[in-house]
Specification:
By secondary structure, the protein is an all-alpha fold. The chain has one domain (4-105). The chain is built from 3 helices and no strands. Helix 1 packs antiparallel against helix 2 (36-66), helix 1 (4-26) runs parallel beside helix 3 (72-105) and helix 2 runs antiparallel to helix 3. It starts with a helix and ends with a helix. The relative contact order is 0.12.
Length: 108
């Protein structure tokens, strides 16, 4: 069973993953007079990068577990973080598709 410290660490990592896009919105890299397109593109790039990094971390932890250099709690935590990140990306994708469908249904 996971210890309270491991659970707190997992929750902190998940919170970090979910707050990174908010920080990117509050302080976009291309905010110096550029249009909103650049900031949205950088936000999307950062979010996909965070998901990719979570996947890499999960892979590294899994390989370390196979080699006997990591414990199961770290592996499960890394996999859970990756799953939450992927679920968030899928939810955003679904909302974008839903919004697109609603726009396409509007009369001209």
């Amino acid at each position: 069973m996971a210890s309270p410290l491991a659970a707190a660490s997992a929750y902190a990592n998940i919170a970090r993953l979910t707050t990174d896009p908010t920080r990117a919105l509050a302080n976009p890299p291309g905010a110096g007079g550029a249009s909103g397109e650049g900031s949205f593109a950088s936000l999307l790039k950062d979010a996909i990068g965070a998901v990719s990094e979570a996947g890499r971390k999960s892979d590294v932890q899994t390989q370390a577990m196979v080699n006997g250099k990591s414990n199961m709690v770290d592996v499960v935590t890394a996999v859970a973080e990756t799953q939450v990140a992927v679920d968030a990306v899928v939810a955003v994708r679904d909302k974008v598709i839903q919004a697109y469908d609603e726009i396409m249904k509007m009369p001209i």
